[in-house]
Write a structure and sequence with these properties.
The protein is an all-alpha fold. The chain has one domain: DksA, coiled-coil domain (Four Helix Bundle (Hemerythrin (Met), subunit A)). Helix content is 59%, strand content 0%. One of its GO terms (molecular function) is zinc ion binding.
C-alpha cells in the first residue's frame, strides 16, 4: 500500500481515536455521577434495586464497546507506523481496499474475519454419552 494512502488512513484513525477517547471519558464521568450521586451519606454503591438504574447497564455496555473499538484503532495506528497496515494479521494477505474504507481499523481480511466470527458463534456440541 502506498505511503500516501496509509497517511490518509492514519489521519482518519487519529481523528477517530480522539473522538473515542473523548466519548469514553465522558461516559466514565457520567457513570461515576450515576453511581455516586451527590447528597448521599456514603460513597458505597447500593444494591441496584435501591437505585434508579434504568439504562445504566446499556451505558456500561456502550462504554465497553467504545473501549474495545479504541484498542482496535490504536492497533491499526501501530500497524501503519510498523509498515504492516493493510496486511491480514492472520493469513498475511493484503486486505481489500473496500474493506479498509469501511473498517479502517480492521486487522483481518474478510475471509479471516468471517472465520473468526464463525468460531465465536459456533455452537458447542456435547460429546456422545457413554454408559458403562
Amino acid at each position: 500500500m502506498e505511503k500516501k494512502v496509509q497517511a490518509g488512513f492514519e489521519v482518519q484513525l487519529i481523528a477517530l481515536r480522539q473522538r473515542l477517547t473523548r466519548e469514553i471519558d465522558s461516559s466514565e464521568r457520567a457513570l461515576r455521577e450515576d453511581v455516586f450521586k451527590p447528597g448521599r451519606i456514603t460513597n458505597l454503591p447500593t444494591h441496584p434495586a435501591d437505585e434508579d438504574v434504568e439504562g445504566l447497564d446499556s451505558e456500561i455496555a456502550i462504554s465497553q464497546n467504545e473501549s474495545r473499538l479504541l484498542e482496535q484503532v490504536e492497533g491499526a495506528i501501530e500497524r501503519i507506523r510498523a509498515g504492516a497496515f493493510g496486511i491480514c494479521q492472520k493469513c498475511g494477505h493484503e486486505i481489500d481496499a473496500e474493506r479498509l474504507q469501511a473498517v479502517p481499523y480492521t486487522a483481518y481480511c474478510i475471509e479471516c474475519a468471517r472465520g473468526e466470527r464463525e468460531q465465536i458463534e459456533k455452537p458447542v456440541r456435547d460429546e456422545p454419552r457413554r454408559f458403562l
